[in-house]
Amino acid sequence: MKATSAIDTNNAHAARVIKAMSNLFAVDTDSGVLTCPARKKLKGEAGIIAGDFVRLEQEGGAYVVSEILPRKNSLIRPLVANIDRLVAVAALIPKPDFFLIDKLIINANRQDIDIVLCLNKSDLSTELYAELCAQYGEIVDKIIITSAADGEVSELKSVLSNKLSCLAGQSAVGKSSLINALIGKPVQKTDVISEKAERGKNTTTRAEILKLAQNSYIIDTPGFSMLDIHGVLPEELALYYPEYVEVLPDCRYRGCTHTAEPGCRVRELASEGGLSRSRYERYCAMFSELNAVGARRSAPGRKT
Ligand code: GDP
Ligand code: ZN
After folding, report:
1. 180-185 CB contacts, 8 Å cutoff, 24+ apart
2. Does one domain contain both 58 and 79?
3. pTM (2 decimals)?
4. 265 alpha carbon, closest ligand
């Protein structure tokens, strides 16, 4: 061991990157946020990203990032690692897009991320709560109710505790307002123009993690990549529906895709009401969509 350090670098949780700048990193440690460079061998494209757990070592009186600890998962847009929890926000207005919620759940399951549904704008109505429970009650960790307008975010605060969470959901459901209510002051910029310019250039959206409390972090950019399920093969789609995985042993065929196979217990339960019928219909639509994408990709003579 070359250096003795004031920071317990053996405790991975003591050092977490909250912002990655070109070659400087804001690292949250037990002694506060330090801005450190990285050892040369760590720099470059596939280097350190926000969310990474790292080890710091002292070098010439300053700390440097010496090691990136293994990642549990990572997203591309925003570029962030080690997400523990996805909070999918919905509200009565704008009209809920259940396809979008399904896609968020599929991607969270693919990346081993916990899911909480959050019904915001409860000051206007909580009518949607029963619907969310009927469709998702059995498959998400929790369904919570908030009102950013009334500052009612206590349940949200508790589900974010001791985790790195990502807020996602349709535009205008109140994600920025919720973050502002959590922080207690407006921190969330809504600079639509620069965001569009970023996306236009097809650059990677850099994530900046906000610290809410000790070990509680939230990402301030919506999870765009959480909405893309095109990497999923049609026959593996059902793996990301926990309620279908549970029923699969009762289907006649072992590799049942729960679409057209005879003796499919999922389809039976969906028509009887034992499983949500609307979620099942969306599953079938997504399955066909993925099949069509696959067929286009393998078609001979395609241009792209
Ligand atoms: P985002 O696009 O998901 O970040 O949504 P915003 O935070 O920008 O909110 C969209 C609109 O909904 C704004 O006009 C907010 O003032 C409003 N809004 C957000 N949260 C609430 C809420 O809890 N209750 C009500 N009534 N309006 C809200
Ligand atoms: Zn089946």
Report:
1. 180/148, 181/146, 181/148, 181/151, 181/153, 182/153, 182/156, 182/157, 182/212, 182/218, 183/210, 183/212
2. no
3. 0.86
4. 2
